[in-house]
Design goal:
Elements (H helix, E strand, L loop, with lengths): L6 H17 L1 H11 L4 H29 L5 H17 L16 H15 L1 H14 L4 H29 L2 H18 L3 H4 L14 H35 L1
Helix pairs in contact: 1-6, 1-7, 1-8, 2-5, 2-7, 3-5, 3-6, 3-7, 4-6, 4-8, 4-10, 6-7, 6-8, 8-10
Protein name: Membrane protein TerC
Subcellular location: Membrane
Membrane topology: Multi-pass membrane protein
Length: about 250
């Protein structure tokens, strides 16, 4: 119960929920496409079982991700991936990722489609949520991951359309989400075992990951994602303008 009284716990939970909403908005589309051919009476079951299976699989993947983050240099790799994911959030591709998702007229076929599609699309979620859980520290990383995912399920499944409309109306939400991923990337990078543990890769110079260093790295990561995202957007606009003029 001490974990629930920790500020770090609730900050991490809030980050996990925001990440899952921002990066998991496609899940509702996947569920709808996979279950669209089911008889009306089975659609609710397909949605519930598919979502439950996808969340269980994600918890397992995050558990392994948290374990792997103890390996030297993997946090640095994860931080780079989070920066890339944040940039893609600010400047998304125009490709339709859902074109290959086929609906099934059988319940378990639809459930399997939801789980497999979610597995393919959840790598970004897993990395980001593992990074957010790392920021909480202590022995309650997995409980807060599970708690955050459970809280975000109804938001994604039933509130996804509202969230999408809010994002369309207030683009600053997307910008804040991308910068959040940059923040997590920065704080993750400066806590890599290779940089902070004297017993790991001893030949490398070490840093003391104080709160000031973590905050500074987080701010730098957030600004980096914002800068690259704006640059990519401007470059695409200039290319589109050149193509239109040509």
């Amino acid at each position: 119960m001490e974990a629930f009284a920790s500020t770090e716990f609730w900050v991490a939970v809030a980050q996990i929920i925001m990440i899952d909403i921002l990066l998991g908005g496609d899940n509702a589309v996947v569920i709808a496409l996979a279950c669209r051919k089911l008889p009306p009476k089975q659609r609710t079951l397909g949605i519930l079982w598919g979502t439950a299976g996808a969340i269980l699989l994600r918890v397992i993947l995050i558990f392994f991700a948290l374990t792997l983050l103890a390996i030297p240099f993997l946090k640095l790799v994860g931080a780079l991936l989070l920066v890339w994911i944040g940039v893609k959030l600010l400047a998304p591709d125009d490709e339709d990722e859902h074109g290959n998702i086929e609906g099934s007229d059988r319940l378990w076929g639809a459930v399997k489609t939801v789980i497999v599609a979610d597995l393919v699309m959840s790598i970004d979620n897993v990395i980001a949520i593992a990074g957010a859980a790392e920021s909480a520290g202590g022995d309650h990383k997995m409980p807060l991951v599970i708690f955050g995912l459970i809280v975000s399920i109804p938001i994604i499944v039933w509130g996804s359309q509202l969230v999408i409309k809010l994002m369309d109306r207030f683009p600053v939400i997307i910008t804040a989400g991308g910068m959040l991923l940059g923040w997590i990337a920065g704080t993750m990078a400066v806590t890599d075992p290779a940089l902070v543990n004297p017993d790991v890769v001893a030949q490398l110079p070490k840093i003391v990951a104080t709160d000031a260093i973590k905050y500074g790295a987080g701010i730098a990561g957030a600004l980096l994602v914002l800068a690259i995202g704006k640059w990519v957007q401007a470059r695409r606009k200039s290319r589109a303008a050149a193509a239109a003029a040509g």
